[in-house]
Write a structure and sequence with these properties.
Keywords: mRNA transport, Nuclear pore complex, Nucleus, Protein transport, Repeat, Translocation, Transport, WD repeat. By secondary structure, this protein is mainly beta. The protein contains one helix and 24 strands. A four-stranded antiparallel β-sheet has the order 1-2-3-4, with no helix packed on it. Strands 5-6-7-8 form a four-stranded antiparallel β-sheet, with no helix packed on it. The model is unreliable at 204-215 and 327-341 (pLDDT under 50).
Length: 341
């Protein structure tokens, strides 16, 4: 692992790789976004640019798929109740503070912070989802491919039965889109506090529609069960030819959970819990699948990164542990192997 100094003056809330893994964006309470470029010659990360992006703490950032623009596109959300869309200007100097320009500001009709924003997979078009403390999931879509300054609100789904106080410090809200392009319907997960919900779109009855046209609505098809605390992270695995979906969550109760979601003929899901791992023995903050959906990584309050893989007995076991000194902890690995025997 290669540590590098970001230069942020306060807590870093999010860090994301771009599609090709050659650029990293970071978001912080210091109200700045920083972008770093990977230098293959020196195997180091070089500052691309740093700019004050919001008027309050920035909680999440998301890269758009590169097919939608010749320049890189970022979205960010903040405690200032806005989502902003940014575009890189390659002709500007590195570190000038002008290399990234704001394309649009989505003034969310929410009285509280926006906790998560995420672009949808590219096969769904250029759209992004966001959720704030009012518990409403919103989808915005770019109306014109050649004009990324124009975004329209197309969906609003109340997730919570009641809104949180505007000054609430709860930040357990997350969005995850289904990455598979071979499913019949559009699917996504929205996490709110200790609950996770899977939604799918279904065509509305054209005969009942006022305009008689084809419209779409989103319906909740199932919940993610068994969580005994705030869900901090959710990750939907790439399908890679599976007939079912794998979904992982990281929870405040100390467990990493892996669910098997099987679609039924009527569009619903059957949810089965495949694994519950509490090796972190403390709060789990982030889970993420690799590109093939075969290895899951998790990070917790123990300051360690754990890698999980399914063995030939269909059991999920910890295959490696990386500690905060950025070196593989052989003693920890031996301990995990001995536990799996």
């Amino acid at each position: 692992m290669q540590p590098f100094v970001t230069g942020h003056e306060e807590l870093i809330h999010d860090i994301k790789y771009d599609f090709y893994g050659k650029h990293i964006a970071t978001a912080s309470s210091d109200q700045h976004i920083k972008v770093f470029d990977f230098d293959a010659a020196t195997t180091s990360w070089i500052l691309n640019d740093s700019w004050r992006a919001h008027d309050s703490s920035i909680l999440r950032i998301s890269w758009a798929h590169p097919e939608f623009s010749s320049s890189k596109i970022l979205a960010s959300c903040s405690y200032d109740r806005t989502v902003k869309v940014w575009e890189e200007q390659p002709m500007e100097l590195h570190g000038s503070g002008r290399r990234w320009t704001r394309l649009a500001t989505l003034a969310i009709e929410s009285y509280g912070p926006i906790y998560d924003v995420k672009f949808a997979p590219n096969h769904l078009g250029l759209k992004l989802g966001c959720i704030g403390s009012d518990g409403i999931f919103r989808v915005y879509e770019s109306l014109e491919p050649n004009d990324l300054t124009n975004w329209a609100l197309t969906t609003e789904i109340p997730i919570l039965s009641q809104s949180l106080p505007a000054k609430s410090l709860q930040s357990s809200f997350a969005i995850e889109w289904c990455p598979s392009k071979f499913t019949k319907t559009e699917k996504f997960i929205v996490v709110a506090l200790d609950q996770g919900f899977i939604y799918t779109n279904a065509p509305k009855d054209t005969e009942s529609g006022e305009d008689g046209g084809h419209q779409e609505k989103y319906v909740k098809v199932c919940d993610l069960p068994e969580h005994n605390g705030l869900i901090r992270s959710v990750s939907w695995a790439p399908s890679m030819g599976r007939s079912y979906h794998l979904i992982a969550t990281g929870c405040k109760d100390g467990y990493v959970r892996i669910f098997k979601a099987t679609e039924t003929s009527n569009g619903d899901f059957n949810i089965e819990t495949l694994a519950k791992m509490n090796d972190h023995q403390c709060e789990v903050w982030r889970v993420n699948w690799n590109m093939t959906g075969t290895i899951l990584s998790s990070a917790g309050d123990d300051g360690k990164l754990r890698l999980w893989k399914c063995n030939y007995l269909s059991e999920w076991k910890c295959m490696s542990v990386i500690n905060t000194s950025n070196r593989s902890d052989s003693r920890s690995i031996e301990h995990e192997i001995s536990k799996s025997r």
